Amino acid sequence: MSPTRAHEARRRRENPRTGELSLAEAPSTGHGPIVRPYGDTTGDGMVQVSFTLPLPHDKRAEGAAIRLAHQMGIEPALLVHAKAIGPDFTFFVVYGPVKHVVDIRAIDIVEREFELLSSKEVNTAIRKHLRRKLVVVGACIGTDAHTVGIDAILNIKGFAGEKGLEYYRELAVHNLGAQVSIPELVNAAYDLKADAVLVSQVVTQKDAHLHNTTAMSAAFREAFPAGQVPHLVVGGPRFEEGSAPSLGVDRIFGRGTTPGEVASYLVHALVDPTTPQRTRKAKSA
């Protein structure tokens, strides 16, 4: 290491500037409680962001994009891409360093509170403790026509190498499809005596997924007596973990959820909460 770099490394260990990654907290391996984005070298803070401005593509629009990047803390900001989107909008990609750091010790993680079960274990638990089939009703509500999520969970072909809930002998699955109105969903759940209602929401413009979810929750609680509301489960790529209470539902599942996770959760929540959990070995780092 050159004398100049050695001096800089010593200064960063002993007296880091405000917002600067301390080498004492994050060694050269890049692992530590304080992290910063990585671009060309560890801790350089380089990020790439994209956005659209309601301006025609010209020099003024490019200047506005650079100024916006500066206000976001990206400085110096390099404009790497600008493309007109029709006559009145421009799409930008900007690259540059930020001074912000993240303390990973302050991050709250929502841990899965139930054991993952095999299809055999799910069927056995339902048959033993519920002594009837567990009824599941699924749909995409409102104007949402994206059935890939609900189909991945419900259809027998499944997702990520796991078969969907239709594969489970002890589950009675009813997939209502897309663009189902909330009253239709409530009526179907009532007629089918649903234990659980699974709703998928992909469309998120103007927070449509949040509005639809809260409206659905309110409709179920109005239509069913207290204590008899079906278990309400909502999934989609833009829901935040831990947001179920504020949306009035029982569970939120995010992107990457598999049918096995949903089936295991339904057993945990509806069949026998006292079922002993199997011992798991922690994954190696």
Largest sheet: 5 strands, parallel
End-to-end span in angstroms? 31 Å
Question: What's the order of the H and E elements?
Answer: HEEHEEEHEHEHEHEHEH
**Fraction of residues in helices?**
25-40%
Strand content: 15-25%
Residue windows where pLDDT falls under 50 for at least 5 positions: 23-30, 275-285
Task: Give a count of the beta strands, DSSP E runs of length 2 or more.
Answer: 10
DSSP helix count? Answer: 8
Structural class: alpha/beta
Strand line-up of the largest beta sheet: 7-6-8-9-10
Q: Compute the average pLDDT.
A: 85
Structural shape: elongated
Work out the radius of gyration.
25 Å
Q: Could you walk me through the main structural features you see in this protein, from its secondary elements to its overall organization?
A:
- By secondary structure, the chain is an alpha/beta fold.
- It has 8 helices and 10 strands.
- It has helices at 3-14, 59-71, 119-130, 148-154, 182-192, 208-223, 244-247, 259-271, and strands at 34-35, 46-53, 78-85, 89-97, 102-103, 134-140, 171-175, 196-200, 231-235, 251-253.
- The strands form 3 sheets. The protein has a 5-stranded parallel beta sheet, with helices on both faces. The protein has a 3-stranded antiparallel beta sheet with strand order 2-4-3, covered by helices on one side. The protein has a two-stranded antiparallel sheet with strand order 1-5.
- A hairpin with a 3-residue loop joins strand 3 and strand 4 (89-97).
- The radius of gyration is 25 Å and the shape is elongated.
- Residues 23-30 and 275-285 have low confidence and may be disordered.
